[in-house]
Write a sequence for this structure.
């Protein structure tokens, strides 16, 4: 599947044919390749268990802690092979990840959580405050709850905290794993607004794994669809959004437009590109 | 293809019974944080009742109050006509309330099947010695419950993973298993906290179908928290809207949708 | 290619609920049992029986007990040896004070005493968790051993506090040779292992695991935390108590508080961690590892002709290093390694 | 089989490694010397060590492993009460004599009940009796003990409680006040005990300690201003390991011993023939002649003598069976002349064993730490009230015999 | 009841407590950084003390040369531990890490004795372990000069470490690590480096404890047991709090001595082994996270 055209900018992040095995026996990714060009937003779509989170964890080398092994392939970031680096080194090079399932530091207050995000930056007091204010500006709710221990905040607040924490590192590339999960709709829009904003103003690149395909494709430049550990489709976001299959399976629209959830009569009407 | 209104009403009225759970003037605070202030609403038998609201509005806390994890500082909970006093979550489980959690609370080290079987524990009668001997009634009971659990597994279409430890499952499937565990208790009232977070549309469609089917087939009353307005508006009978711990709206989806307070606080304009 | 479950279909839930659902495993277990019951007593040397197999089985039983508490119910405990001591001393006293009591009954009663002590010391577990609980279980360890040293009645006022274990007799049949002792121990351990397996695959076991994995959720589902935890403490202590009695009667030959020191508690803990936390098989593998490894290293060190003081210290270092090594290779213990091995075998000769 | 094989379940790691390495080093050094001198009537001694870590369970495994090795072990010495108890029944069944020099069951002195166990030289009970005798002498006669206060500061375990029957009985007889103060093992903290002692202001403190407890006791005594001269340790509290760690605090401290400190021709011979040949077992040669080392050498001598004695009866130059060695141990008579011939005159008390008396002596000395080394302060061997201890031995062994269904009798 | 005796016991207990705290601090450091109870701390104390006297006895180093040399050795040891043991075990269950530290304890114990032999050594620090004369004269109360010095050393250590933890971003990062290894890695906290540094610092703390305890009791294997004395201190003070260690130490030290003196005789004595544990347990029933430990968050 060679899609790189001559006109495309050189990939900022490129994942080449990676294969991942958990626990020595569970093969999860079966040769996934994808590229994120600089300054672009790339969406990674796919059903539950397709391997989105695994792909992101492979890139950020957080996989090791979960007893996963990359048995094949390589990851390049800014032209440098990064699969042997530690996550700390990656963050320093400008690549941050927001993990799935929130993962806030429960005993730290929201503000302390955010501050740890800036760990690699060695900021002065004023700059730190500025960064904090920026995050609080994005998520006013966090400001209200700044002094509470993260463990005692609501699910959505934790999600915002996790995203804000990653922003504190001022990365040039962010891996977002299901940022909209558990977030109220208007905040979802806000989050994607932030994504767009950062992308435009600060030229930050994004790779986002997202279930909310609708929104994701609206904001993304490019998309990959993952199924069963393989990339089964890729293309411009608009192209994907207009693809009939994608429409049906990921956007919940059949020929006749949106269908009420109440009217779904059958389960598993899923068509598969691969068995 | 929107279902036309009379049809929906007809079905709803046929189905929905008397008030099964009545929450009166509930207030809950944690130290300085007021999670819930003076909230009252009721849940009728057999209905699908949604709770919506912005993040941190107090939705999950509300569920925690209903099933006894938190004890409100003020207010009364009337369950099937009886005021509940000093009930803990065990008591709630005993009285037929099951739930799922926002941050998945599965038993990570156990398999899917075992997780679902734990849901049936209140129905198990054989004593510990019998189980240790795995003999006679104990074994029959175990198998009988296994049959039930397998029904749920079929229902949720998770046959392929029944012997996988849940810790290894992807997020979406974990949510489904959690629903299975709650269903296994055959509850009268099922509390679902964002059951569809982290699912794509197709999966949400399936999930909705499950919820509707449970509601239809077993007559389970469902209280649901969800941020996907499409889902909420489509499947719920009535919706409560919370904001900053206060109730700002209550009614049918259509009423709520057109409530200006709700639009301001939560729905926004689209 | 030979280790396959293909073609083996389960037609009932009963069949699926079997302990060993795969036929090859059942055959292997059958063979192991035959070897254990028939071949070993006949063929193994007295050394093998009395210095390796008997302690292996006894420690496996204790590890099983601890595994129920720590592995299944998630309550980390460092007081295993104390419960073993209670079992041993109680059995001693039952035999001493009730003439003619069958020794197995005395063991069971000893186990029940241990269970009671277990319940008493398990009470704080409702509030205290994790390493805090682990450290507090040391209270059990030190307190019980102290009581046994202080209370003369328990040791029948023996001046030194060391008492010799009585003969093991059942209906006039004396278990006095290594082979007989071995068979008795094997019998007890096999039965109790089976019971443990039954427990962990039925509702009790699930309640323990639920409490372990997430106690709040378990309560919401309808498990009572206190009851479940105390049950785990009771069952675990019962197992440890019986193991302690066997340790005194079938292995050491003496009943003395010193034999049940903190060191022993730790060794049992090593067993379950090396073997596999939350695994019945793991208790056995771990026990084999901890019993055999020092012997093996000792023989090896002597084979190399190293000066003994060097050899002994090297032994200790290698032992420590191997523990770390195994944890790095597989944090879930030998049982998991075994399982992964089997899964690979299932796929073999294909890589995935 | 051409060598006399002896099992040494030893310990060289762990908290008691210091004692273990000295003691087993001494035995092995002496064996090497015997072999260098051509063996016992030509029969060489062979041995194998096995690390027990002072742990009963491992000790039993070691014993079981070694007992059948090289044609079978013919003697065993575990230097651990726990292990000794653990293999007590086994040695009788296997007919492998076990020695327990200065530890283990005191009542095993009765060879009619314990034919294969030899608490050689002396036991805890005799030691306790000897301690009181010494204190009596020091105060100018047993009668002067009346009204005196003696503290028994003990390791709170079977070991520390063992002498209680003797001490209590003697306290009754001689009218001194016995104050029992327990120290929780391992004994690395004794501030409260010593404050209690200071409060009681006793005339003597018997230190029945083991391992780190000893050095801590001495140090804490100093810290609380209690004179070390008034402290009398057991022989497990009377080695260089116990005093060196306490530094200057140990000066003046006294303890029991059954090895008179000093230099002996035998030790020089060891240096010359064994250490010079590079076969010495101690890594640090300055430890030659230290208390534990000498105790090991003593054990070595006793074994060699028992074997020699047995050979005289059962055939010179032959390899003895365990049972034959048992006979040798049971009919040993090492008088001063023999000690002199061995180059160890006065190193340990003369030993004469019988079936009734597997101990063979019961005599001890008192030594004092002068800041650098131990010095014997009783010119003669001290023997306590042996009639009393004998009575206890009889009672206790009779109880054991009844429990085990043994008919007491001398082995043939 | 004799009041001056009471105070003597009390003061003796408080000072012993300080000695326990000295060991407990080492545990706190590691627990803070990884949420793991470091079983090898006792072995490290032993290793440090033995290395220091070993250098003096075998190679004729002076004390002032041996100490820095040992510091270097402890730093190397700490870094090695991180590299070889901890790095491959990131994000594993606590019990696994705990077990690894047990393996480590064996290894270090063996290594120490292999290198320096198993004899008992004496260690003379230039501080005398004799009663302070003026207190003895004035109040007839015995307080050892040595203990007072140890208390001061301990105080300084607590002060410095608490400041480091509360005032620097490293302190915050540590708490983050203890909460969630994986997330800490994700935000770019250099877990490896932090662990390496912390183990090295724990090694230095072990050296201080080893020197003081070694001077007190002799440098011998039993030094590894003082961990058992530090444990109740830890659970009482809270695993995560440096000041907790010292407060816990004082409480445990004083009460165990008072108990031994006033309750002990009634029940046969020797209760110091378990009394502190039972006391700590009772405290825990009221505060399950110890006096100053971080509150355990249990929420669904
Ligand atoms: N730690 C693990 N051990 C074993 N298997 C794992 C582990 N983590 C994930 N898997 C398996 O890897 C596959 C891919 O999981 P992954 O989490 O990447 O999916 P996903 O696409 O992110 O799904 P979701 O949308 O539900 O988050 C799943 O089949 C899952 O069972
Ligand atoms: N145990 C607790 N201790 C302290 N504060 C709490 C606790 N539980 C909830 N809160 C606070 O109460 C408020 C309501 O929380 P809740 O979890 O009910 O929100 P929610 O409506 O479920 O939000 P979300 O949609 O983000 O999940 C939040 O601000 C939260 O921080
Ligand atoms: Mg995912
Ligand atoms: Mg919520």
């Amino acid at each position: 599947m060679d899609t790189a055209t001559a006109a495309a900018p050189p990939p900022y992040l490129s994942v080449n044919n990676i294969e991942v095995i958990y626990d020595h026996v569970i093969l999860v990714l079966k040769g996934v390749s994808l590229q994120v060009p600089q300054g672009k937003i790339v969406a990674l779509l796919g059903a539950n268990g397709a391997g989105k989170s695994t792909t992101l964890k492979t890139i950020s080398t957080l996989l090791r802690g979960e007893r996963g092994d990359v048995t094949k392939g390589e990851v390049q970031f800014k032209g440098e092979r990064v699969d042997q680096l530690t996550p700390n080194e990656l963050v320093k090079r400008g690549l941050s990840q927001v993990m799935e399932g929130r993962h806030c530091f429960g005993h730290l207050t929201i503000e302390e959580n955010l501050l740890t995000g800036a760990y690699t930056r060695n900021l002065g007091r004023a700059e730190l405050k500025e960064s904090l204010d920026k995050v609080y500006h994005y998520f006013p709710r966090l400001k209200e709850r700044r002094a509470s221990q993260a463990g005692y905040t609501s699910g959505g607040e934790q999600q915002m905290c996790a995203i804000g924490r990653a922003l504190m590192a001022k990365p040039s590339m962010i891996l977002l794993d299901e940022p909209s999960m558990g977030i109220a709709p208007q905040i979802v829009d806000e989050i994607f607004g932030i994504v767009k904003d950062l992308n435009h103003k600060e030229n930050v690149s994004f790779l986002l794994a997202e279930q909310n395909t609708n929104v994701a494709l609206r904001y993304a430049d490019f998309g990959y669809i993952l199924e069963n550990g393989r990339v089964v489709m890729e293309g411009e976001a608009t192209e994907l959004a207009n693809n009939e299959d994608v429409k049906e399976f990921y956007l919940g629209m059949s020929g006749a437009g949106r269908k009420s959830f109440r009217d779904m009569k059958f389960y598993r009407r899923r068509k598969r590109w691969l068995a | 293809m929107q279902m036309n209104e009379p049809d929906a009403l007809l079905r709803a009225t046929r189905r929905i019974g008397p008030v099964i759970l009545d929450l009166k003037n509930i207030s809950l605070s944690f130290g300085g944080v007021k999670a819930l202030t003076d909230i009252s609403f009721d849940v009728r038998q057999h209905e699908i009742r949604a709770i919506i609201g912005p993040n941190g509005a107090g939705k999950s806390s509300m569920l925690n109050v209903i099933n006894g994890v938190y004890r409100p500082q003020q207010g009364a909970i009337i369950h099937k006509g009886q005021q509940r006093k000093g009930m803990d979550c065990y008591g709630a489980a005993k009285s037929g309330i099951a739930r799922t959690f926002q941050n998945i609370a599965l038993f990570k080290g156990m398999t899917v099947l075992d997780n679902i079987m734990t849901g049936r524990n209140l129905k198990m009668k054989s004593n510990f010695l019998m189980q240790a001997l795995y003999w006679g009634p104990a074994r029959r009971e175990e198998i009988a419950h296994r049959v039930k659990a397998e029904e749920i597994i079929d229902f949720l279409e998770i046959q392929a993973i029944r012997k996988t430890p849940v810790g290894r499952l992807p997020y979406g499937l974990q949510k489904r298993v959690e629903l299975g565990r709650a269903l296994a208790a055959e509850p009268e009232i099922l509390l679902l906290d964002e059951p569809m977070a982290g699912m794509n549309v197709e999966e949400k469609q399936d999930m909705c179908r499950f919820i509707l089917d449970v509601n239809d087939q077993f007559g389970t009353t469902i209280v649901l928290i969800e941020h996907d307005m499409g889902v909420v508006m489509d499947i719920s009978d009535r919706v409560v809207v919370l904001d900053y711990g206060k109730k700002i709206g209550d009614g049918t989806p259509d009423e709520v949708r057109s409530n200006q307070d709700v639009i301001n606080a939560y729905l926004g304009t689209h | 290619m030979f280790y396959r479950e293909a073609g083996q279909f389960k037609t009932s839930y009963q069949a699926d609920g079997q302990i060993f659902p795969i036929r090859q495993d059942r055959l292997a277990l059958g063979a192991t049992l035959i070897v254990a019951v028939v071949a070993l007593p006949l063929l193994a040397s007295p050394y093998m029986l009395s210095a390796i197999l008997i302690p292996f089985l006894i420690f496996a039983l204790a590890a099983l007990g601890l595994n129920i508490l720590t592995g299944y119910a998630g309550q980390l405990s460092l007081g295993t040896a104390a419960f073993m001591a209670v079992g041993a001393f109680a059995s001693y006293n039952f035999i001493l004070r009730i003439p003619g009591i069958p020794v197995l009954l005395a063991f069971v009663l000893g186990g029940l005493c241990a269970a009671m002590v277990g319940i008493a010391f398990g009470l704080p577990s409702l509030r205290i968790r994790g390493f805090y609980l682990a450290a507090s279980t040391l209270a059990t360890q030190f307190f019980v051993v102290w009581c046994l040293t202080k209370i003369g009645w328990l040791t029948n006022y023996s001046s030194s506090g060391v008492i010799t274990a009585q003969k093991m007799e059942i209906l006039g049949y004396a278990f006095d040779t290594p082979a007989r002792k071995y068979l008795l121990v094997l019998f007890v351990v096999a039965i109790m292992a089976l019971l443990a397996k039954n427990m962990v695959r039925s509702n009790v076991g699930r309640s323990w695991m639920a409490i372990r994995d997430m106690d709040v959720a378990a309560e919401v589902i309808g498990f009572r935390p206190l009851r479940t935890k105390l049950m785990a403490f009771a069952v675990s202590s019962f197992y440890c108590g019986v193991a302690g009695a066997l340790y005194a009667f079938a292995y050491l030959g003496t009943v003395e508080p010193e034999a049940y020191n903190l060191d022993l508690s730790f060794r049992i803990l090593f067993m379950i961690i090396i073997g596999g936390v939350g695994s019945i098989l793991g208790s056995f593998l771990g026990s084999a590892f901890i019993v055999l490894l020092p012997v093996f290293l000792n023989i090896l060190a002597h084979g190399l002709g190293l000066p003994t003081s060097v050899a002994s210290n090297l032994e200790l270092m290698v032992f420590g290093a191997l523990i770390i090594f195994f944890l790095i290779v597989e944090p879930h213990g030998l049982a998991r390694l075994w399982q992964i091995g089997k899964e690979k075998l299932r796929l073999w000769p294909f890589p995935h | 089989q051409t060598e006399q094989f002896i099992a040494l379940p030893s310990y060289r790691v762990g908290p008691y490694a210091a004692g273990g390495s000295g003691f087993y080093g001494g035995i092995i050094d002496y064996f090497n010397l015997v072999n260098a001198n051509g063996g016992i009537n030509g029969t060489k001694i062979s041995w194998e060590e096995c690390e027990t870590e002072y742990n009963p369970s491992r000790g039993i495994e070691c014993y079981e492993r070694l007992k059948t090795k090289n044609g079978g072990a013919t003697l065993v010495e575990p230097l651990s009460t726990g292990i000794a108890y653990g293999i007590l029944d086994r040695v009788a069944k296997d007919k492998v004599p076990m020695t327990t020099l200065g530890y283990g069951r005191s009542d095993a002195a009765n060879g009619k009940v314990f034919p294969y166990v030899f608490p050689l030289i002396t036991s805890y009970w005799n030691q306790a009796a000897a301690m009181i005798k010494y204190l009596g002498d020091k105060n100018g006669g047993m009668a002067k003990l009346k009204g005196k206060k003696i503290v028994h500061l003990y390791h709170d375990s079977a070991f520390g409680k063992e002498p209680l029957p003797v001490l209590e009985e003697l306290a009754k007889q001689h009218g001194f006040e016995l104050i029992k103060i327990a120290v929780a093992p391992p004994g690395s903290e004794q501030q409260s005990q010593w404050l209690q002692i200071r409060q009681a202001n006793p005339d003597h403190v018997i230190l029945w300690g083991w391992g780190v407890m000893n050095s801590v006791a001495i140090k804490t005594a100093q810290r609380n201003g209690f004179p070390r001269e008034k402290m009398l340790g057991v022989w497990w509290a009377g080695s260089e390991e116990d005093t060196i760690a306490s530094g200057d605090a140990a000066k003046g401290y006294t303890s029991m011993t059954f090895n008179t400190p000093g230099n002996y021709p035998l030790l020089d011979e060891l240096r010359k023939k064994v250490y010079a040949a590079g076969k010495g077992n101690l890594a640090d040669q300055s430890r030659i002649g230290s208390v534990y080392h000498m105790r090991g050498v003593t054990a070595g001598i006793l074994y060699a003598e028992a074997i020699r004695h047995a050979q005289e009866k059962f055939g010179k130059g032959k390899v003895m069976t365990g049972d034959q060695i048992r006979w040798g141990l049971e009919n040993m008579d090492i008088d001063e002349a023999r000690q002199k011939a061995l180059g160890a005159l006065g190193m340990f008390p003369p030993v004469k064993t019988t079936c009734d008396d597997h101990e063979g002596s019961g005599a001890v000395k008192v030594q004092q730490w002068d800041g650098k080394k131990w010095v014997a302060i009783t010119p003669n061997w001290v023997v306590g009230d042996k009639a009393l201890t004998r009575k206890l031995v009889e009672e206790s062994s009779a109880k054991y015999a009844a429990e085990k269904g043994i008919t007491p009798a001398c082995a043939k | 009841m004799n009041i001056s005796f009471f105070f003597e016991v009390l003061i003796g207990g408080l000072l012993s407590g300080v000695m326990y705290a000295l060991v407990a601090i080492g545990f706190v450091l590691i627990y803070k950084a990884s949420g793991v109870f470091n079983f090898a701390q006792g072995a490290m104390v032993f290793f440090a003390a033995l290395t220091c006297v070993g250098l003096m006895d075998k190679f004729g180093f002076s004390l002032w040369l041996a100490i820095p040399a040992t510091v270097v050795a402890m730093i190397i040891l700490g870094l090695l531990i991180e590299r070889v043991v901890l790095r491959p075990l990131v994000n594993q269950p606590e019990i696994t890490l705990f077990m690894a530290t047990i393996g480590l304890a064996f290894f270090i114990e063996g290594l120490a004795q292999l290198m320096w032999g198993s004899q008992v050594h004496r260690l003379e620090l230039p501080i005398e372990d004799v009663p302070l004369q003026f207190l003895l004269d004035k109040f007839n109360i015995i307080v050892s000069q040595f203990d007072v010095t140890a208390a001061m050393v301990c105080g300084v250590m607590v002060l410095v470490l608490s400041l480091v933890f509360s005032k620097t971003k490293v302190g915050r990062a540590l708490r983050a690590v203890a909460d969630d290894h994986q997330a800490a890695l994700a935000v770019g906290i250099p877990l490896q480096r932090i662990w390496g540094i912390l183990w090295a610092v724990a090694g230095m703390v072990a050296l201080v404890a080893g020197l003081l305890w070694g001077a007190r009791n002799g440098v011998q294997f039993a030094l590894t047991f003082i961990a058992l004395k530090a444990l109740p201190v830890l659970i009482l003070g809270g695993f995560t709090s440096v000041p907790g260690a010292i407060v816990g130490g004082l409480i445990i030290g004083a009460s165990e001595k008072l108990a031994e003196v006033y309750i002990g005789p009634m029940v046969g004595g020797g209760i110091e082994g378990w009394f502190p544990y039972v006391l700590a347990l009772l405290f825990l029933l009221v505060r399950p996270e110890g006096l100053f430990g971080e509150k355990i968050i249990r929420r669904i």
Notes: The domain at 1-96+187-270 of chain B is CATH 3.40.50.300 (Rossmann fold). The pocket of magnesium ion (ligand 3) is lined by residues A 52-53, 100, 177; B 170-171 (CB under 6 Å).
